[in-house]
Amino acid sequence: xxVVSRFRFTSAIIVCLFGLVFAFPSFLEQxxxxxxxxxxxxxxxxxxxxRGGSHIQLExxxxxxxxxxxxxxVDEVRKQLRKQNIQYSxxxxxxxxxxxxxxxxxxxxxxVDAVKKILFKIEKELVIAVDGSDVxxxxxxxFADRFARKIVDESIEVIRHRIDESxxxxxxxxxxxxDRIVVQLPGVEDPSEMKRLLGKTAILTFHGxxxxxxxxxxxxxxxVSLQSKPGVMYLPEERGGDVVHYIPIKRQVSLTGKSLVDxxxxxxxxxxxxxxSIKFDSVEGTRKFAELSAKYLKKQFAMVxxxxxxxxxxxxxxxxxxxxxxxxxxxxxxxxxxxxxLRAGSLPAPLKVIEERNVGPSLGADSISAGKNATIFAFLFxxxxxxxxxxxxxxxxxxALFCNIILLFACLTLLGATLTLPGIAGIALTxxxxxxxxxxxxxxxxxEIRSGIKAFVAVSRGYKMAMMTIVDSNLTTLVGSIVLYxxxxxxxxxxxxxxxxxxxxxxxxxxxxTKSIIAYWIGKNKNAEIxx
Amino acid sequence: xxxLHLIPYGTKFDIIGKSKCIFFIAGVFVITCFSFIIFKGxxxxxxxxGGYIFEVTMxxxxxxxxxxxxxxxxxxxxxxxxxxxxxxDLMLKLEKSEEGEGQATAIKTVKNVLGDNVVYKRIETVGxxxxxxLVSNAVKAVAFALIAMLLYIAVRFEWQFGICAVxxxxxxxxxxxGMFAIFPMExxxxxxxxxxxxxSYSINDTVVIFDRIRENLRRFKKMDLGELINLxxxxxxxRTTLTATTTVLAVLSLxxxxxxxxxxxxxxxxxxxxxxxxxxIFVASPLLMFLNIKRDKExxxxxxxxxxxx
Lengths: 532, 310
What we know:
The complex is a heterodimer.
Chain A: H1 6-23, H2 30-34, E1 45-46, H3 48-51, E2 53-60, H4 62-83, E3 88-96, E4 99-106, H5 112-122, E5 126-131, E6 134-139, H6 141-165, E7 172-176, E8 180-186, H7 192-198, E9 204-208, E10 216-219, E11 232-238, E12 243-250, E13 255-256, E14 260-267, E15 274-280, H8 284-295, E16 301-305, E17 308-311, E18 323-326, H9 332-344, E19 351-359, H10 361-415, E20 418-419, H11 421-434, H12 436-450, H13 455-487, H14 491-524
Parallel strand pairs in A: 1-20
Antiparallel strand pairs in A: 2-8, 2-19, 3-4, 4-6, 5-6, 7-8, 9-13, 9-16, 10-12, 11-12, 14-15, 15-18, 16-17
Chain B: H1 19-40, H2 46-49, E1 51-57, H3 64-72, E2 79-83, E3 89-94, H4 101-114, E4 119-126, H5 128-156, H6 159-182, H7 189-219, H8 225-257, H9 259-287, H10 302-308
Antiparallel strand pairs in B: 1-3, 1-4, 2-3
Helix pairs in contact in B: 1-6, 5-6, 5-7, 6-7, 6-9, 7-8, 7-9, 8-9
C-alpha cells in the first residue's frame, strides 16, 4: 500500500503555492505589477539578448601596468646603486616572452650579492636569477596574480563610477577570467559613447614646462623630429584646426588628479569657451597645488591627460584655495566628458574592447514571445503524450509537470538568475525530461502488475524499485552540473544552474507531489481497478 | 481503455548478438565525423572566429547582389548576407576580426553602406582573442565534468560501467561535433549548450540502463552476461523510447515555434537526443561484454537484497 504522510502532502502543496506566488509576477502586465506589494516585486531577470541592450567585454592591459611597476623598481635600484657606488653597464626593463624582466648588468660579478639585497629590499616578491655579472628579476606568479586581481578590481570600481556618473541604469559589471571585464548595459542600444568613456584611462598630471627647449609647431599627421634632453619629453597639444603644438614637458610629475574632490564644467570667463573647474582635496592636494603655483609663478606649466597636453597656461599668482580651471580646446561635450572622467577617477590600466553585442528591443521582444510559445507547445505535446500513454496516472504527472515549470520560474526569480536564450531552451528541455522519473516509476508499476502482483502492491513496489534508478541518474546529472558550474564560465555556468535546479525540482515533484496525489487517489478509490 | 504503447510488452531483441555489426557502424560514424572535423574543420561562427554580425531591417527592398559587392570591396573579410522574414530583414556577417579602434571604424563603414533609416536590431562585434578562450574554457569544464561523472558511476557501480558510459558519451560528442563540420551549421557560443544538453541527457539515459543491468546481475547470478544485458535492455526499452519521445517532442516545439535563434540551437539537440539514446542502448551496454565484469560481488544494497535471499 502506498502511504505518504500527511506532513509530506501538506508541505508539497505549500511549496507549490509559494512557487506560484513568486512565479506569477513575471507574467503580469507592467501596470498590475506595480500594484503588487514590494516583497512580490521580483521578476525573472531577462538576459540582454531578450530585453535589448549592450554587452561589452573589455581586456585589462596588465602587461603595461606590470612594466610600469618594473620601471619604478628600476628607478629605485638605480638610485641605490649610485648611493652604494656600484658600477653597472646597463639597467632597464626588457620584454622576454611577453613578460617584463628587470635586467641589471654589473661591471663586476662581486657586486651581485649587493644588488640582490637591494632588489629584495625594494620588492620581496621578485624572482631573482644570476648569470655571471647579469642579474635578472621577474615578478613571481603569486605576486602577478595578486597584482592582476587588484588592478582588475580597481578597474571595475572605476568603470562602475563612470557608468553611474553617465546616468546609465542597472549596469552589470563582472570580472571574467584573470584579465577580462564584462559590462552589460540594458536598454543601451548604441554604446559608442560608453565605449569612449571606458576607453580612456584619464590619468591627469601636472608638469612643469622646460624653459630652454622650444615649442615645436606642426600640422596634424605631419612627422616631426623632436630633439629632447634627459628628464624632458615632448607631448602634443591639439589647438583645434590642424595645428599641433609639441611642448617640452618635464617628466617629473608635480601633482596628479588623484587628489581631486570635484570636477565640473564651467565657462572660461575670458574667452567664454567651456572648460573644467577642478577642486583639490583640502589637505594634501591644496597644499601641493599651492606649492606648484609658487614654484612656477609667472612660468608655464602643463596639464596632461593620457599623454596629451590639455593646456599649458602660466601661473599668474599663488593659488591657495585649491580651486583651478582647466582650459583648452574643449567643446561642451568633451568638457562634460572630461569632468565626468575626473570625478570617476582614473583607470589603473588601459582597457581594450574585445567583444561587443548590441540587441535592439524589438528583437528581444520577438525572442521572448517565440520562447513563450515554444514552452507552451512543449508542455502541451508532452502532456498529451503522457495522458495517451498512462491515462489517469498521466494526468497526475501533468499536474506535477505544471508545478515543475512554476517552481523552476520561482527559483530562477528568487535566486536572481538571468534568463537567456539558451536558458529558455533549457526550460523546454526540462519539460521533456521532468516526466522521466514518472515514466520510470510507471513502467516499473506496469512490470510489477504483469508479473502478477496485485495492483495496489504494484504501485508501492514500483515506487520502491524505481527509487534507486532515479537517485542514481539524477545524482549523476547533479555531479556533472556542479563541476560544470565550478569550472565553466558565462553561458556554461548559466546552463549548469538551470540543469541543477531543474533536476532538484523534478526530484521534489516526483517524490512529494505525484506520489502524494497517487496515494490520495488510491485512498479515495480503494475498490477501483488500476489500469496503467 | 486505450493506452499508447510505443514498444510492445516482452520484446526479445538480440542486441548483444548483433553488437559487432553495430560497433562497426558506430565506429564508421565516429571515424567519418572525426575525419571531417580534422580535415574540413568545424564551421565556427563569429563567436569563435571573430567578426561582425548585423541584423537589420532595411527601409526598402535591398538589392542583395549589389550590397554584397559593395561590402566585399570594403576589405572586411568574407561577407555573408541572409534574408529572413520579409525581403527587408537582413543578416550580414563579416568575418574580419579586429581589435580596438578598428572595430568602431568597421561598424561605421557598414552603417554608411547601408544608408539611413535602417533599423538595427542587433550588432555584434567579436575580437580575435575571445573565441579561443571560449573553446579552451568549455573544453576544460566539460572534461572535468566527464571525469566527475565517471568517478561517480565508478563508485556507485563498477569502474567498467564508468568507462562504458564515457565511451558512449565520447561517441555522442564526436557525432554532434561532426555534424557541425559536415553540414552547413554554424558552431557558436550557444552550440556549446547544445552539446552539454546532449551529454547530460545521454549520461542520464545510460545510467538508467546500467541500473537495470546492475539489478539483474544481482538477481540472476548464473545467467550468461550477454543474455542478461539483452534482458535488461529489453526491459528498459519502453522507458528509454518513452522518455526520448517526450524530450524530442519538447525540443521539437522549440524548433518549430521558438524563432530562428532558438531553432538553430534546437536542431543539434534533437539529433543529440537521438544519438544519445542510440548510444546508451547500442554502444554503452554491449561494451560491458568486453570489460570483464565481476559477477559475485557481495550485495550491499538492501532494497534488492531481499529478492536474492534464497
